[in-house]
Amino acid sequence: MKRRKICVVTTSRSDYGLLRGILRAIQTDRALQLQVIASGMHLAPKFGETWRDILADGFKIDCKVAVRMTGDTSLTNLKSISIGMDGFANAFTALKPDIAVLLGDRFELLAPAIAALMLQIPIAHIHGGELTEGAIDDSVRHAVTKMASLHFPATESYRRRIIQMGEPPKHVFNFGAPGLDQIHGSTLFTRAQLEKELGFNLQRSVALVTYHPVTRGKGGALNQVRCLVDALKASGLTAVLTMANADAEGALINKYLQTVCVLDPARFKWFPHLGHLRYLSCMRHLTLMVGNSSSGLTEAPSFRLPVVNIGDRQSGRIRAENVIDVPCTETAIVKGIKRAVSSRFLNSLRGMRNPYDRFHDGHTSERIKNVLRDISIPGDLLEKRFYDLK
Question: Which CATH number describes the domain made up of 4-176+358-382?
Answer without folding.
Answer: 3.40.50.2000
